[in-house]
Amino acid sequence: MNEIIIASHNEGKVKEFRSMLKQFDVSVVSLRDLDFHDEIEETGSTFEENASIKAETISAHFHQPVIADDSGLVIDALDGRPGVFSARYAGEDKNDDANMDKVLYELKSVHESERTAQFVSVLAIAIPGKETTIVKGTCEGIISQEKIGEHGFGYDPVFYVPSLKKTMAQLEPSQKNQISHRANALKKLREQWSEIF
Length: 197
Ligand SMILES: O=P(O)(O)OP(=O)(O)OP(=O)(O)OC[C@H]1O[C@@H](n2cnc3c(O)ncnc32)[C@H](O)[C@@H]1O
Ligand SMILES: [Mg+2]
Fold this sequence. Notes:
Elements: E1 2-6, H1 11-20, E2 26-30, H2 47-62, E3 66-75, H3 96-106, E4 116-126, E5 133-143, E6 159-161, E7 166-167, H4 173-179, H5 181-196
Parallel strand pairs: 1-2, 1-3
Antiparallel strand pairs: 3-4, 4-5, 5-6, 6-7
The structure holds inosine 5'-triphosphate and magnesium ion.
EC number: 3.6.1.66
GO molecular function: ITP diphosphatase activity
Cofactor: Mg(2+)
């Protein structure tokens, strides 16, 4: 069985990958498992660039196959913000509550019909000696008026999924993992899996 490193310091993401990658023939190792705690500077201006930077940095360090995820919330009424700045939208210290408060404040006077948004997940798969592969998954939603729900991480409490009539944070983890941006990206990766490895 192949071993793959998930190049993320976000334990919420790592948990989702561990669960969703069960359907693939791989064993998953996290940066925490490897005792790797250095921040990787996300200097790119796109999800694709940042995912590649994270995957290639870790692959070069450990000489092993790596999946990295660069993701975020793209809000139409905010011209795509917070986008690649989603993790630190309210300041350098990562703080999910402050980030959501900022988004809710900025959308205070925006009517429901204009609160459309997209979660985006771009995965970069870096394997020593091979070209990096990129796949992208999205999930459509509406920014709610308040935070609702206890599951998930990040912006999940303010991301309402119309088809399920719940915020992402009200979904059981197994439900989120069927419809999320990250799940949709992994579906695309699955189609290419045998060519990549
Ligand atoms: O870079 P790594 O170490 O993977 O962890 P991170 O949290 O910094 O991850 P990103 O740089 O990709 O920033 C993405 C941010 O977008 C948000 N986000 C991404 N996926 C999400 C999801 O499934 N649900 C809610 N928020 C999400 C969340 O706030 C993340 O911190
Ligand atoms: Mg990050």
